[in-house]
Amino acid sequence: MSLPSRYAPEGLSRADQSKVITSGTKREHTPVNYILRTIDDKIQSALHHQQHGYNNEDIEMIPIEDEKEVDVISSYIEFLRGDAVYPQSDENIVEDTPDSELVEGNISFLILDTNFLISHLKIVDALKELASEYGLKLIIPVYVIQELDGLKNSDRIHESPYADCSGESISQLAKWANKWVYHALADFPTVVKGQKLSQRISKNLVKDDAIFDCCLYFKERNPNSLIILLSNDKNLCAKALSNDVLTVSFREHMDGHVIAKTIYEENVRRFGKLEAKVKPIESPSKISEKTKPLEPSPEWLEKAQQLDQLNGFDDVRQKAYTEIQMVLLAALDHFG
């Protein structure tokens, strides 16, 4: 028996002619802009949580655990990064603050991209907490700091042609990520570090190239450490991998502990088990206390006040003559 077809020898019955014939399994109907509403709903729920009886200063760490959601956010940031030019202000970049300690051992430097910070802030925060156990240093590139600041303040973000992504949502995620960065830099200075302006190979690069330059700088300066880029930008990750910089991108069910443990094991596999050494460095406040200029003595202040009360050169000359005479008489009396 042949398949139902009007070209078959027996043709189609009248009943079959009125049917819509399809193949494959039936697909479930997906609402329009489902991903958009999912991300927006999460953010609106978090904002509601802050505004009704909770601390408005809290940093919400919304888990973006769906691959489609991650792709939407990454694509949006990639679109904005395409032609956005953020002012290269240096006022928020700490240049002269030294590390409070130097650590030697199995150290891994994690270079954070903007899209990873925005999408996986909870995982990044977990890596921060696990840093001392697994020898992690989290590096925030200069351009990422500038980009986060631009994303949270930019008006043009709401004019994107990406119909399946909300500019308001990206802006809010950037605000939370930006707040996390500054709290982490202040409270965990030995773990979370902002890239210094002097820590660049090329000074004029921006966007992906600036983040990639940050990876290369730390790789060049730390040959016995792992340099790992945390990013959901496929092109940037490909460029990093081609230059022997490892990458971490979104995977379902990934968590901070698994990432930290895997990085540490890879570090030991490559460099062997290295002895950890800690060398404290005095804080700038303690150094400044040691180099504080000497205060004038009370005797010096008294003499200075007496000189201020003199009128004219003759008075000063007479005062100097009297002082010298007293010194000479005291010396003669001492040796006499």
Explain this structure to me?
- Belongs to the SWT1 family.
- Pfam families: PIN_4.
- InterPro entries: PIN-like_dom_sf, PIN_dom, SWT1_Regulator.
- GO terms for molecular function: RNA nuclease activity.
- With 336 residues, the protein is α/β, with parallel strands linked by helices.
- It folds into 2 domains: 217 residues, Rossmann fold (3-Layer(aba) Sandwich); 38 residues.
- Helices cover 51% and strands 9% of the residues.
- The strands form 2 sheets. It has a 5-stranded parallel β-sheet, with helices on both faces. It has a two-stranded antiparallel sheet with strand order 1-7.
- Strand 5, helix 9 and strand 6 form a beta-alpha-beta unit.
- Helix 6 crosses helix 7 and helix 6 runs antiparallel to helix 8.
- The longest helix has 24 residues.
- The chain is elongated.
Question: Can you give me a brief rundown of this structure?
Answer:
The protein contains 13 helices and seven strands. It has helices at 14-17, 34-51, 67-83, 114-119, 121-134, 142-153, 167-187, 207-221, 234-241, 256-271, 284-290, 298-308, 312-335; strands at residues 101-104, 108-112, 136-140, 192-194, 226-230, 246-248, 277-280. Keywords: Nucleus, Transcription.
Q: Which runs of at least 5 residues are low in confidence (pLDDT < 50)?
A: 29-34, 90-100, 283-291
The largest sheet has its strands arranged as: 4-3-2-5-6
Give the fraction of residues assigned to helices.
40-55%
CATH third-level topology of the largest domain = Rossmann fold
Summed up, the helix count is 13
Q: What's the CATH H-level superfamily name of the largest domain?
A: 5'-nuclease
Instruction: Please indicate the percent range of residues in DSSP E strands (runs of 2 or more).
Output: 5-15%
What is the H-and-E element order? HHHEEHHEHHEHEHEHEHHH
Instruction: Give the rounded overall mean pLDDT.
Output: 76
Domain unit count? 2
The CATH level-2 architecture of the largest domain is identified as 3-Layer(aba) Sandwich
Tally of DSSP β-strands:
7
- How is the main sheet built? 5 strands, parallel
CATH class of the largest domain: Alpha Beta
Main location: nucleus
GO molecular function: RNA nuclease activity
Organism: Candida maltosa (strain Xu316)
Subcellular location: Nucleus
